[in-house]
Structure formats: structure tokens, C-alpha cells
Amino acid sequence: METQTGSDVTVYWAPGCSSCLRVKEYLSQHGVAYRSRNIQTDPTAVSDLGALGVRRVPIVAKGDDWVDGQALADVARLCGIEFEARVSLTTDVLAARLVRILERAREAVLLFDAIMLGEEIPDGKRSFSDLAYHVFSVAEVFLEHDNGQPVVFESYARLPLPDIATREGLAAYGADVIGRVSAWFDAHLAAYPWDDLADVYYDRQTNRQFLERTAWHSGQHLRQLLWRLDRAQSRDLVTSAAPLFKGLPMPSAVWHSDTGL
């Protein structure tokens, strides 16, 4: 339940951010009214975030206290919600889903033309080319983590170089990531320490939870690519892809309600 005044809970967010959309839906589902602050359009939102000592989104704040909006258990504690842990899909199912999500994203990229790839996402400052790159980059971050690289906020802020930001470049990058992710699962899936803690900036999360987050994160952005193709080509790709997302803790909406889409 978004409001501009009258709530002591504030959500700082940005368009196109999948975790921002997820935490806003979570609060609304539990009847928590919150002040919605889009850091791209609210002229003081970034400075107010800085006053809290943080410079990333999503952030849920209540007075001087704040939590990362990706950590729903922490959000629940801050907002007085009784948190209910959910049962996730098994790692073999998550692995298969992630690979198929990446494959569908590569298939989708090949249906974009140069004009569509250059368009900005709804109410955002990224292009659909950036978004397509992000789908694959999210999975690449998972591989980098296994090589000892901690996941920081900037890990998810990468943009494609000009030679990759084309349909052909994105398809080639996607194919490379799909190949490396598939090979990693072939080599590590059965015996990986899935219950150990992952080195991520936003929560205390196990490797299993990090894999799940990687799958639904890429999956949500795949839905957004398919949404654009549906509008351009009178298709129903978002609906047809729904089985890929079953059981993943994804937002219900494709875009933020603020966009009306």
C-alpha cells in the first residue's frame, strides 16, 4: 500500500529493480503502508539514503533504522510482520530452471531489433539492451562467487560494452554464460556445500538461497524482455513462460505499479 505521507515506513527503490518490486509487493500483501521513494525521480531520496549511511536500493527504513529490502526476514522484523519461511525448490530443479531461463533469454534477444534494444525500460534509465545483458550477468556473478569473489552491490550494476550491446553481441555473451553455467552444474551440483553461507552483501544467505535468488532474479528480467516482445509482436510470451517461474519467489507484477504496466 503505497502512500506519499502518513507512514513511518519508507521504501527507497528504482525502476527495473526486481528486488525493489518484490519487497514493495511483500509489504502490500501484509497490509503495511509505506512511503514510496523512487531515487530516480525523487530529488532528495539519494541524500536521505546517504543520511542513513547507505547508498543502494531497495532499502526499507523506519525512523533511523533500516534494512536491506532483499532480506525479507529483516523487513518483517522491522515492520512487525510475522515472518514465515518458505520451502524452496531443490537445487537440481533450480539449476535446470536457471539454465532454461538463460536459454529463453537468449532466444528472446534474437527477436529484438536494434531500435527495441535501444529503448529505455518503463520509467527507467536502462535500455532493453542493458536489461538483456543483466539477465546473463546475474548468472555470471554466481560463477564469480564460487571463484572467491564476494557479491557486492556493484556486482549487479554492470553495463555491456558497445560491441556486446547489439543483438549479436548479447546472443554471443548469453551463449558463453549458458555454456559456463551448465558446465559448472555438471561438475559441482551434486556435491556442492549448499548449506554453507554465501558471501553476499544483502543478507545472511546460504549457497542454496543464493542459487534460488539468482534463478528468480534472472527470471524476473526475462519476463520483462518477453513483455516488450509481447507488446511489439502481439505475442503471449510472458504467459507461455510461466511454468519456468513456478515455485520461484518472484514478484507478481512484471513492472512496478508506479509505471501502470
Automatic annotation (TrEMBL):
Domain DinB-like: 103-225
InterPro entries linked: DinB-like (IPR024775), DinB/YfiT-like (IPR034660), Glutaredoxin (IPR002109), Thioredoxin-like_sf (IPR036249)
Gene3D superfamilies linked: Glutaredoxin (3.40.30.10)
Domain Glutaredoxin: 9-64
CDD domains to which the protein is assigned, alphabetical: NrdH (cd02976)
Identification of the protein by name: Glutaredoxin
